[in-house]
Amino acid sequence: MKIEAYYDDTYPSVKEQKAFEKNIFNKTHRTDSEIALLEGLTVVYKSSIDLYFYVIGSSYENELMLMAVLNCLFDSLSQMLRKNVEKRALLENMEGLFLAVDEIVDGGVILESDPQQVVHRVALRGEDVPLTEQTVSQV
């Protein structure tokens, strides 16, 4: 399973993106470290059971800020999924994942790094179901 967001034209075509992602995975999936420099980019990553999470920035980006984003995403998902961060649980809660990413970054700009705030905002946005999509008991 792969969720990706590219915020610039470093890899403009899907073919280039796939090659880059394959290269990153091949370089990182067997190591225990949390950071790598690859193709002039700073890559921070974390794995959990059958998932790999990556946050990538330019070589000029602060590694601690990139790691803060990664930890915020992982910790937010961990709370939302009740510490069951694995592929099946994530697939069943894909909307929550997208909302969390949307709360953490916007267009590549870091908005939030506190997982408690992210989880709270995702819960609020999840409650904003349009009246036409609500069941009678919800209304």
Polypeptide structure, described:
With 139 residues, the chain is an alpha+beta fold. 45% of the residues lie in helices and 17% in strands. It is built from 5 helices and 5 strands; from the N terminus they run H-E-E-E-H-H-H-E-E-H. Helix 2 (63-80) packs antiparallel against helix 4 and helix 2 crosses helix 5. The longest helix is centred in the middle third of the chain and has 18 residues, at 63-80. The radius of gyration is 16 Å and the shape is globular. The model is unreliable at 134-139 (pLDDT under 50).
- The helix/strand order is HEEEHHHEEH
What low-confidence regions span 5 or more consecutive residues with pLDDT below 50?
134-139
Second CATH tier, the architecture: 2-Layer Sandwich
Largest sheet: 3 strands, antiparallel
| 3D shape | globular
Structural class: alpha+beta
Number of helices, where a helix is a run of at least 4 consecutive DSSP H or I residues: 5
Radius of gyration (CA) equals 16 Å
Number of domains: 1
Q: Total number of β-strand segments? A: 5
Indicate the proportion of strand residues. Answer: 15-25%
**Euclidean distance between termini CA atoms:** 35 Å
CATH topology: Beta-Lactamase
Strand order of the largest sheet: 1-2-3
Task: Please report the first level of CATH classification, the CATH class.
Answer: Alpha Beta
Mean pLDDT across all amino acids? 84
Give the fraction of residues assigned to helices: 40-55%
